Amino acid sequence: MKKIIKLEGIPLTEGHSGLFLEVEEGIIKRGFYYALVPVRGFETLLLGKDSRVAPTITTRICGLCQVTHAIASARAIESAAGIEVPPEAEKLREVLGLAVRIYNNLLHQIIVSEDLFPEKREQLAFIREVQGVRKFAGTVLETVGGEIIHSPNVKVGGISEPLEEPVKEKLLLEIDRVLEKLKNSFSVFRESLEALWKREGLSEDFGSHSLGYFATDLYYGKPVSFDKFTFLLPQELLEGELKRRVTNLFPLFDGKPVETGPRARAVLFKGYTPRGGVKELHLLRGEENIEALLRIREILENGKFDGELWNRKTPSSDGETLGVGVHEAPRGTNVHAVKVDKTGKIVYYKIVVPTELNFFAVGEALRGISATKAEYVVRAYDPCIVCAAH
Question: Where does the pLDDT of residue 63 fall: very low under 50, low under 70, confident under 90, or very high at 90 and above?
C-alpha cells in the first residue's frame, strides 16, 4: 500500500527543511528534500550596489559558510572586472577556506554525535576534543580573515591585512599539536560511526545513488562555465501545497542532477572509487579535515605574506561580461556569478550553493531505504538550508 509522508524540521541539521516521501511497505520509493526557510533575496539586494561591498554582504547569507561566500564573491567581481589578485592573497584565501572547512566539518561531527554516542559521557568527551581543534581553526580565521565570522579582510582585489612572520610562525607551531588531536578525534568518530551502523543494521551501501559528481578542485576552486547550470522550480517537481511553500531552486549541471562535496572531490581529483552510501560520505569528510590542516601547514611554510596583498583597483566593466567566482566550500562547490557596469555597480548577481546542488542527491539516496532511517541520509550531507534559500 502506497502512502505519502511529509516530515518538517529535520533534527540535527542546519535550518528548517522538509522531506516528501512516497512509501510502500515501509520502503521509500520516491523522495524529495527541500528548504522551508524564507528567501532573503541577496541576489536582488545586491543589484545597484557598489561591487566592492559584495563580499561583505554575501558573508551575511550564513553564519557557517561565511568565508566561502566572501571568497567566491570577490573572485566573481575580479573575473568580471579583470582585476589581478596578488598570488600571496590567493594563498591566504585558500588558507581561510580550508580553516572554515575544518571549522564547519567538525561542527557537523558535533551535531551528529547525538546519533553516534549512546552514552552522554562519551559524547561530551568527544565534543571537548573536537572543540579544541575548532578553536585553532577559529584562530586561523580570526588571524587571517580579521574575524572568526564574516571575515572583513577578504576584499575585491585580495586581502586587506598582511600576515606578519611572527604571527605566521606562531600558527605553524600549533599545527602539529592540533593535527594529533584531530587524528585522535577522527579515530573515535570512525569507531562510533561503525558502531552506529552495526546497531542500526545498516548496510555499507545504505543511502547510495547513481548520480554523477561535480567539483572543480581539491582545495580552493577553479573556473567553471556558468552556462552549464540550469534550474528547476519547485513547481516543476513537487505536488500540492509544497509548490508554493518550498523556497529553494533545484540546480542541474550539464542538464543532470549531481552530488557535490567531499566525495565528489575525492572521485574527481584523488582517483577515489566510490563504494556508495552515506557512511562513506561521513568518513571522506573526516579525511578532508586532516588533508586541509596539512595543506594549511604547507601554504604557510612555503609562503611570505607580510607584503602588500591587495590590488585596490576600482572594479569596472561593460555590464555584459559575466564574472564567475568559485570556491570549494565544506559542503561542495560554491559559485557566484556577477555583471558589473562601468561605474562599478552590480547589474546582475546569481549564486549556486552546494546544498542546492545536493537536494537531488539526497532525494536519490533515499530511494530503497526504510522510511524510519531517512534522517540518517539527510544528516550525512550536512545541509546548510539558509544558504540554499539565499
Answer: confident
Torsion angle (degrees, nearest 10) of CA 127, 132, 136, 139: 80
> H helices of the chain, where?
42-45, 54-58, 66-81, 87-116, 120-145, 165-200, 234-237, 242-245, 262-269, 278-302, 354-366, 374-380, 385-388
Nearest to 238 by CA among 22, 12, 47, 13: 22
H helix or E strand, kind and range, residue 27: strand 27-35
Residue numbers of the domain that contains 337 = 2-388
Instruction: Calculate ∠ Cα 321-324-327, nearest 5°.
Output: 170
Between the CA of residue 346 and those of 5, 158, 192, 323, what are the distances in Å?
A: 43, 19, 48, 11
Q: In whole angstroms, give the CA distance from residue 270 to residue 266.
A: 5
pTM over 0.90: yes
CATH (domain of 192): 1.10.645.10
> How many distinct structural domains can be found in the chain?
1
Task: Quote the crossing angle between the two packed helices 278-302 and 165-200, to the nearest 10°.
Answer: 170
pLDDT of 1 strictly over 80: no
